[in-house]
Specification:
Radius of gyration of chain B: 17 Å
Helix content of chain B: over 70%
Number of helices of chain A: 19
Order of helices and strands of chain B: HH
Oligomer: heterodimer
Shape of chain B: rod-shaped
Number of helices of chain B: 2
Strand order of the largest sheet of chain A: 12-11-10-13-14-16-15
Helix content of chain A: 40-55%
Shape of chain A: globular
Strand content of chain B: under 5%
Number of domains of chain A: 3
Chain lengths: 481, 69
C-alpha cells in the first residue's frame, strides 16, 4: 500500500509517498486555483528561497502509468483527479511530536511569513498547522502546497487563525509556562491544545494576564456561554468595504505575529544540557575520542549519519564537516533545542529530533500511518551511526540487553558504527547503576567484542586514556538471506 | 472556492469575530482622524507629509500595538 502523508483531510486532493516519490493528486475542482497559486510571485519566491516545496506537474504519459498501478487505482476512482504533481522528497521526515519548542516556533514563524505573503497577492492559507512544515536539515519547508486558496477580499476573518493558536501559540505558551514539550502535546492531540484545557491548568491570577485573557480565558468563557448549535457563529461575515476587510485581516495576522514573538522559547537548562562542560573526560581522553571519530568519518565518508544520543551536537557538527547529512537524536529537549539553534544559525545540515532510542516515537494518526514511527523511517537509512557515551544509559537505565542494542544499531546503519564502550567500573556507569552493580558484573571488553561479532567486524578500537572507556569502529557484516 | 475544512473552535471563533468588529471600529476612527487632519492641513495651506498609503500602514501598526498592550 502507498503511504498516505498527513494531508488527505483536504477535499481538494491528497498526497502520498509511492515508490519513494511524493505525489499529490489534485481534484478537478481545485486544479485551476492550484495552478494560479503556482504562478504567483510569492510562490516562486518561496520556492527559490527553499521555504516552499517545489511542485512539478506530471505529463499525461506519466499519469497514465500511475493509473495502471493497482495500488493507486482507488485514488483515481475516489474523486475525479484533475492533475498529479510531484514534490521534492525531504530526505528525512520529522514531525511536531519529535520537535523541541524551538522548531515549533520556527515552523510557526514560517507559516505566518507565508500567510502574509499570500495575503498580499490575494491568497490565503486554508489551514495553519505544524503538519504543513517539514525540516530540510535545520531549515523549515512548507510542504502542503495545496493549502492555498484565493481569498475572498470581502472576508475580514482568517479562520485558520484559531487553528494557528491551538497548534502553535498555545503549545508554545504551555512550553513557556510549564515546560510542556511538543511531544507531550502532539503525541495525543492532532489539533493542538484547546483554550479550555489550558484554562483548567491556570490559577485564578494567571488567567487574568493580558496574554492569557486573549488566547485562553476569554475564548474559554465564551465557549461555555455560547450555544454550540448556533450556526450563525460560523457564517462568513462579508463586508462591502474591501479596504476595511483588508485592514481587519492584516491586523489579525499582525496580532498573531506579536503573540508569537512574545512566546519565543528561552534557552532551557536540563540535566544534560551542560554535559559538554561537566562530563567526566579529561582533556587527553576527550581529544582521543574526537580524533577517533574524525578518523572513522574521514575513512568511510558517510553521506547520511545518525548521531544517537547527540547531546548538544558536538559530534554531529564533526560529521557535517565531512559533507554528511546528519540526523541528531537525543531524549533531552533542551539539548535538541540547542542543536537546532546552532545548526540553524550556521546553516548546517543537521536535523535535530527529540527521540529516546529506547522508546522511539510510534506510528501515529489514522491507521498509525499518517506519521510513521521513527524506526520505520530510520532503519537502513544511514551509512553511519554514532553511539557515543550512550550504551550505559541503554544498558543500565533502560535495561536493554547488549545484544539488542547492537542488533538495532546493525539495522540502522548500512555500513559503519562508531560506538563507545563504557565499562561497569566507569564513574558514570556506577552512578547510573545505583546499587545494582551485580546486574552488569559480567560485562567487559571481551564480552562486548564477542556480541559485536554477531553483527559487525571490528575495524579498530582504541582505549581512551585515564578512563574506563574504549572506542570501537565497527563495520556491518553482510546480511545473510 | 472556500473549503474551510478545519475546526474553527467555538469560543475562539466568537472571540475572533468580536476582535474583528473592534478592529473594524478602529478602522473608521483612523479614517475619520486622517480625514480631519488632512482637512485642516489643507485649510492652513500645508500639504500632508505622508501619503495616504503610509498613513494607513502606520495606523495599522498603532492599532496592533494597542491590541498587544
Amino acid at each position: 500500500m502507498p503511504r498516505l502523508a498527513p494531508s488527505f483531510r483536504d477535499p481538494a486532493g491528497c498526497c502520498l509517498i509511492f515508490n519513494e516519490r511524493v505525489l499529490r493528486f489534485v481534484s478537478v475542482d481545485a486544479l485551476p486555483e492550484f495552478e494560479k497559486f503556482l504562478q504567483t510571485d510569492f510562490s516562486k519566491k518561496f520556492v527559490a528561497e527553499e521555504k516552499l516545496i517545489p511542485s512539478r506537474r506530471l505529463g499525461e504519459k506519466e499519469v497514465a502509468l500511475l493509473r495502471e498501478s493497482p495500488e493507486l487505482k482507488s485514488i483515481f476512482v475516489a474523486q475525479p483527479v484533475g492533475a498529479v504533481f510531484e514534490h521534492e522528497k525531504i530526505p528525512f521526515q520529522s514531525y511536531p511530536h519529535e520537535w523541541p519548542a524551538e522548531m515549533l516556533w520556527t515552523a510557526a514563524s514560517l507559516t505566518l511569513e507565508i500567510a502574509e505573503a499570500a495575503f498580499k497577492e490575494g491568497f490565503c492559507l486554508k489551514d495553519a498547522t505544524p503538519n504543513n512544515i517539514l525540516f530540510r536539515g535545520s531549515q523549515p519547508v512548507f510542504v502542503d502546497a495545496l493549502s492555498f486558496e484565493r481569498r475572498n477580499e470581502r472576508d475580514p476573518i482568517w479562520k485558520p487563525a484559531t487553528q494557528f493558536i491551538r497548534t502553535f501559540l498555545l503549545p508554545l505558551l504551555a512550553n513557556r509556562k510549564w515546560n510542556l514539550q511538543p511531544a507531550e502535546i502532539f503525541s495525543t492531540r492532532r489539533d493542538g491544545i484547546a483554550p479550555e484545557e489550558i484554562y483548567s491548568w491556570c490559577g485564578a491570577l494567571e488567567r487574568l494576564s493580558p496574554q492569557m485573557l486573549s488566547l485562553v480565558t476569554i475564548p474559554s468563557w465564551l465557549s461555555s456561554k455560547a450555544n454550540p448549535d448556533d450556526q450563525k457563529i460560523y457564517a462568513p461575515q462579508l463586508m462591502d468595504n474591501i479596504e476595511k476587510a483588508q485592514f481587519i485581516f492584516e491586523s489579525g495576522l499582525r496580532r498573531l505575529k506579536k503573540n508569537l514573538n512574545s512566546l519565543k522559547p528561552q534557552t532551557a537548562k536540563s540535566t544534560w544540557s551542560d554535559y559538554m562542560t561537566t562530563h567526566s573526560y579529561d582533556d587527553p581522553a576527550f581529544a582521543a575520542k574526537e580524533k577517533f571519530v574524525r578518523e572513522a568519518l574521514l575513512e568511510f565518508k558517510p553521506k547520511r549519519v545518525l548521531d544517537s544520543g547527540a547531546n548538544t551536537g558536538h559530534f554531529s557538527v564533526l560529521a557535517t564537516q565531512g559533507g554528511a547529512k546528519v540526523v541528531a537524536i537525543d531524549l533531552d529537549a533542551a539539548c535538541v533545542g540547542k542543536i537546532f539553534e546552532m545548526a540553524r544559525e550556521k546553516k548546517m545540515d543537521i536535523l535535530p529530533m527529540v527521540i529516546n532510542l529506547a522508546r522511539p516515537s510510534a506510528g501515529l494518526g489514522w491507521r498509525n500511518a499518517e506519521f510513521p514511527s521513527f524506526l520505520d523511517r530510520a532503519i537502513g537509512k544511514f551509512d553511519s551511526v554514532l553511539m557515543l557515551a550512550l550504551i550505559h544509559h541503554l544498558l543500565v537505565t533502560e535495561r536493554i540487553p547488549l545484544e539488542e542494542i547492537l542488533r538495532l544499531a546493525s539495522e540502522l546503519t548500512n555500513q559503519l558504527l562508531v560506538i563507545e564502550f563504557v565499562s561497569p567500573e566507569d564513574a558514570m556507569f556506577r552512578r547510573l547503576t545505583r546499587g545494582r552493580e551485580q546486574l552488569h558484573a559480567s560485562l567487559n571488553e571481551e564480552v562486548f567484542e564477542r556480541v559485536c561479532g554477531n553483527f559487525f567486524e571490528i575495524v579498530r578500537s582504541v582505549p581512551l586514556p585515564n578512563s574506563k572507556r574504549r572506542m570501537y569502529c565497527l563495520k556491518r557484516k553482510a546480511v545473510e538471506n | 472556492m472556500i473549503l474551510g475544512y478545519i475546526d474553527p473552535g467555538l469560543g475562539q471563533m466568537i472571540w475572533l469575530s468580536i476582535v474583528s468588529a473592534i478592529t473594524g471600529f478602529i478602522f473608521y476612527i483612523k479614517k475619520t482622524r486622517a480625514f480631519i487632519m488632512n482637512f485642516f492641513l489643507k485649510i492652513f495651506g500645508r500639504e500632508s507629509k505622508q501619503t495616504p498609503a503610509v498613513t494607513e500602514k502606520s495606523s495599522v501598526e498603532a492599532e496592533s500595538k494597542a491590541e498587544v498592550r
